[in-house]
Amino acid sequence: MDTQEVVRLPKLSRVAVCGGTHGNELSGVFLVKELLKSKQGEDRNSPILVLSNPEATQRCLRYLDVDLNRCFSRDALNSPLSDSPPYEVLRSRELNTLLGPKGSADSVDFVCDLHNTTANMGLCFIAYSDSDWISLHIFRHLQRCLPEISMRYINFNLPPDEAYSLDSVGKHGFAMEIGPQPHGVVRSNIYTTMKTAVQHMLDWIHLFNSGTVFEGGLVDVFTLVKHVDYPRDCKTHDIVAAIHPELQDKDFCLLNPGDPVFQTFSGETTFYDGNESLYPFFINECAYYEKGIAFSLSRKRCLNVPAVQSQRNQSNEL
Ligand SMILES: [Zn+2]
């Protein structure tokens, strides 16, 4: 056996599980409500449970005024407030007070933010870095525990200041994105996958805090390269095509130059004109029509993750 160096990391004492950051992504909404019923206050080790956007959740909307999950970059959190700020801008500051302040020593150790997608993506971790060993080890743990679930690790590759989503408020964290599930709908299989994954994640954190050594190993990471918009009418800006049937539901299947990507409403096929084969994801995500994203493209890379163990005594270790 090789003698891997073990990276020692601080314990994860304060952990948050958030749902309803998008109020119509119902697996996370109902899972957080369920966990709130059974766990809150009973166990010192239980996570902080947060319904992130209660107003939007009550109305089963993604958001009321602006997308809450785009409000957590350093600039967005610190810019002066207008006279009548959007609801989600105020809410993002409340959440930053509860779980942050982002980037400070006081921020929680770990945030898992629960999301659903209408795309056929299985279970995805979405993170900003490819060197957050905590998130990568939790991902490996879930792969071991749930071999029947297709699982991918997506890296958006942004510096912490520019990271804009709720999970970026913690010292570690990721969005757990599961699909396909229509927004405003809860499907039992998707809900159960999320519930089981969250339980295994919390189990890993408990084992880590108890001093378990987790062996290193390889993880495939999909790093965002670019977003692709729908073809649009240059005057009206209306979309003029839908995702091609041969691309629909083929998230994480390699897209090669010349492959069909769109079918116009007049019946013509358009083809991928890039010169590099890449992996598409978020194909035909309902909520991204407004963002001008028909699908995103990523590059796959195999990453070597070191062994980790929690620091025995954080004050002595320094
Ligand atoms: Zn979402």
Main β sheet profile: 9 strands, mixed
Average pLDDT taken over every residue: 95
Backbone CA Rg = 20 Å
Ligands, ions, cofactors:
zinc ion
Give the low-confidence spans. none
Figure out the total of helices.
Answer: 7
CATH superfamily, by name, is: Zn peptidases
State the share of residues found in helices, binned by percent: 10-25%
Q: What is the H/E string? A: EEHEHHHEEHEEHEEEEEEEH
Number of strands: 14
Distance between the termini: 30 Å
What do we call the CATH topology? Answer: Aminopeptidase
Strand order of the largest sheet: 3-2-4-7-5-6-8-13-12
Q: How many domains comprise the coordinates?
A: 1
The backbone outline, from C-alpha atoms, is: globular
- CATH level 1 name: Alpha Beta
Which architecture does the CATH hierarchy give at level 2? 3-Layer(aba) Sandwich
Structure class: alpha/beta
Content of β-strand: 25-35%
What does the secondary structure layout of this molecule look like, with pairings?
Blueprint: E1 6-9, E2 15-19, H1 26-38, E3 48-51, H2 54-58, H3 74-78, H4 87-99, E4 110-116, E5 122-127, H5 133-145, E6 151-155, E7 172-179, H6 188-209, E8 217-228, E9 241-243, E10 260-264, E11 269-271, E12 279-281, E13 295-305, E14 307-310, H7 314-317
Parallel strand pairs: 1-14, 2-3, 2-4, 4-7, 5-6, 6-8
Antiparallel strand pairs: 5-7, 8-13, 9-10, 10-11, 12-13
Helix pairs in contact: 1-6, 5-6
Family: Belongs to the AspA/AstE family. Aspartoacylase subfamily.
Pfam family, one: AstE_AspA_hybrid
InterPro entries: AspA/AstE_fam (IPR050178), Aspartoacylase (IPR016708), AstE_AspA_cat (IPR055438), Aste_AspA_hybrid_dom (IPR007036)
